[in-house]
Amino acid sequence: MKEDKHALLSSSVEASPEELAASILPDDQEIHHPSGGLQIELGLASSLSVADKDDIWKIFANAMQEMYETSSFCWNPTKKKREMFHKLGRFILVRSKKSTKIVAFTSFRFEEEEEYGVVYCYELHVSPAFHRCGLGRKLTQMLFDICKRRGLDKVMLTVFKGTICRNYPAPRHLSFYGSFKANETAILFYQSIGFTLDPSSPGYGASLPVDDGDDDWEDEGRGYVDEECDYMILSRSVALATH
Length: 243
Ligand SMILES: CC(C)(COP(=O)(O)OP(=O)(O)OC[C@H]1O[C@@H](n2cnc3c(N)ncnc32)[C@H](O)[C@@H]1OP(=O)(O)O)[C@@H](O)C(=O)NCCC(=O)NCCS
Fold this sequence. Notes:
243 residues, Aminopeptidase, 7 helices, 31% helix
């Protein structure tokens, strides 16, 4: 990684939550919702209260436990909590002013990925009662804003795509790879806000296998998608951050 990029990344890793909050438009720090006002907070994983960690874990587990159990990642709460509340982890929380409960959050870290300085989104979750109100889009936009203001390159994340089964072609509405046990809602969501397959994703550059009569070795030579791998890495460059 070039020195200037490295310096930008290091200063981001060291930035205080207050400095990062300055990257987010003031208008974004209050959200109106029919259930009452919602407020945005930025913080470090290390400064979350026990009650907030509990809310975060419940929202995550409700949405993801089953998906993890049927994935190559497996369901391991101890390991997952260690990752989620890692000392380098940062959170943007959406909190109900009325109940003071967290209703949505994203967690992220500043990382170097193949010469790029990135905001790696580790988690993005919206409580079911608040789905389709634009909170997911708003939190992702904040990650873009932070990424852009810090001079970094892109926002990245990992999503379950399932594994390809040749007997079950891709649902027509998914332009990503055909999949089994995919997180379809998340894929549709990320597609709608402009994420595309990152070059570091397993199977990048591949297309759905088509039996064109050629020998298999040739298909493999073209780098067809890794059918064994049930996740993919998506990204969006800050150059495309406004939507
Ligand atoms: C994925 C998730 C974060 C989306 O959050 P959200 O706040 O409901 O999404 P938004 O309201 O911002 O939706 C933005 C756009 O995404 C698309 N979208 C969102 N949910 C969708 C769904 N269920 N089906 C189809 N498209 C969807 C739509 O285009 C939507 O725009 P529209 O409502 O104007 O049509 C939310 O469904 C969630 O928390 N899911 C469970 C956890 C999860 O899977 N997280 C991702 C892990 S990688």
